[in-house]
Amino acid sequence: METSILFLPLIASIISGFFGKMIGDRNSEIVTSLLVSISALLSIFVLYQVIVNQYEENIIIATWINSGSLDVNWSMLIDPLSAVMLVVVTSVSSLVHIYSIGYMSHDPHKPRFMAYLSLFTFAMLMLVTSDNFIQLFFGWEGVGLCSYFLIGFWFKKESANAAAIKAFVVNRVGDFGFALGIFLIFYLFGTVNYSEVFQQIPTVIDQNLSFLGFKVKAIDLICLFLFIGAMGKSAQILLHTWLPDAMEGPTPVSALIHAATMVTAGVFFSCKMFTYL
Description:
- The strands form two sheets. A two-stranded antiparallel sheet has the order 1-2.
- It has one domain.
- Strand 3 (208-211) and strand 4 form a beta hairpin.
- The radius of gyration is 19 Å and the shape is globular.
- By secondary structure, the chain is mainly α.
- The longest helix has 32 residues, at 158-189.
- The protein is built from eleven helices and four strands.
């Protein structure tokens, strides 16, 4: 059931994106809205299980990377925080899908739009259910890519193209810092799995690194780099300039990206790290 929450939006995106012309606009809208709505209902049930029965699980979907000391699984971690975010992401996304049926009714490219929305939902779900920094980064970059597609959906408008490129570039600045933080985590701890990293923190708490000619505590440097990534995704000051221009995308995009999902990724990440302390 848990994996269905993750894969239903991906299936919806594939059907609408690759077979949208074959099945027609209306069927694309129905399929994507229905599958994402089912995902939302399943998420509510999982949250109920977490609240009532203290259900927690780490479901291994597949082995992703196994090279030397780097061992990364594609997994689905269910805990109280991720269960709440599953409900937030899927419920908001399902409402946006349904609203888009009417809002985009006169657009000639409805299947492509619905496919982007569903793909964005899948990437966000990957982010909030990760149990390691690599999977988190995959979802992190996935929502950034989908935001570029959605903001620049009306690509024949120069302003939409400019806004999409601006959002993409500004987010890459933050993501570069985020990637440096993950590299440092693997360099220091030899792993990228949340539980293993936080178990080892006491052993490196006083370790220093040389950075730009200064000696800095390794933990402080990691936190700084990761926070830069969170700043970019959540449009905080200095890396906030992409957000106003992103309004060039269709209104449902603003509801999905700006109001409840992508810009909460940085907040979610900060909360996630605190749950392990």
